[in-house]
Amino acid sequence: MRKRRILGLLAVAVAGVIAAGLLLPERPQPGSAQPAKTEARGPSSDGRFAALPSRDALGKPRGELFGFRSWTASRPLVQAAPVAALAAVPPPMPYRIVGQVVHDGTARVVLARDDRVLTVREGEMLDDDYRVESIKADGVTLVYLPLGVREELAVTAAMKLDTPTAATAGAAPAPARTPEPSSAAGASRAAQLRWEGPERVQAGSNFNVALKLTSDQPVRASPLQLSFDAKLLEAVAVRPGGSFSDGSFSYRVNPGGSIFVGASGTGRVAADAEFLIVTFRPIRSGDAELKLSSLVLQGAAGGAIAHEPPAAFRTAITQ
User: Fold this and answer.
1) Which of 33, 119, 174, 288 minimizes the number of CB atoms within 10 Å of its CB?
2) DSSP for 66-135?
3) How far does CA 160 lie from the centroid of its chain?
4) Cβ–Cβ contacts within 10 Å for residue 168, how many?
5) What is the pLDDT of residues 35-47, one digit of tens each?
6) What pTM does this model have?
């Protein structure tokens, strides 16, 4: 009986050892490779994780974790087609020819822009945008400086220029245009001009001075220049008389005491008709003078009409 009990205890001990060997994990032997962590769990694993699918281990990072990365999709560079540059065009021509005047013995072309009258010569600048390149009998060439474009101003028959403004050194002057024949048979009389205004005026009170014309030939255009003492008189306004009431009229008053006028009309015979009227304001007492420093009368066919220069107009300014 005792022997049988000892054998039973030994069997239980052996069974316990065997069970412990089955339950305890196997220790890796030295030099042997450690099993990968990605192996599937054995049947002896906890039941809660036995049903989970196996996953691969995280690999090595492919780049810097916080490095810069552009999310813009790369596209092949496409060469942009060249765009044809639009040809620059100068603005509409603001000037027109109204004739010519003689200043200090030199003929100059008269241009009008809006309500201004400009007397110019070759090489002169106009409002910082244009330069007068050349002046010829059939027209004037202006250069639009921002683009370097040349533009021609043609001269109509009524505004035909007599001579270029700037004569070449050593060259003979161009002959003056022959005056047009008088409409009266066998008669050729020069046009007459005269001033009409008050002999005495009071300082501070405006007054008018009229330039009157008598001509048996139709006068179609006439650029002219007036001169006055700017210390005694102030030009307030200039307006056309009956001779150019149906045409164009423009003028410019210079601070130094001169007035440039450009006038044109349909052309009519004048008999003591008002050519133009100037309104002055007397500044202080003294003897004021107004004179016609240059004048060109142009007939219906574009020829020059001979004229006799009028005497200067004089008036006494009192306080």
Assistant:
1) 33
2) T-----SPP----PPPPPPPPPP-PPPP--EEEEEEEETTEEEEEEEETTEEEEE-TT-EETTTEEEEEE
3) 31
4) 8
5) 445 444 555 555 6
6) 0.50
CB atoms within 10 A of CB 133: 14
What the block records as the tokens of 176 is 């003056």
| pLDDT tens digits, 136-181 | 877 889 999 999 999 998 865 444 444 433 333 333 333 334 444 4
List phi, psi (to 5°) of 304: -80, 140
**Residue 289 to residue 232: CA distance in whole angstroms:** 9
* DSSP H or E run through 48: helix 47-50
The token pair that represents 201 in the structure block: 């005026």
Distance between CA atoms of residues 251 and 259, nearest Å: 7
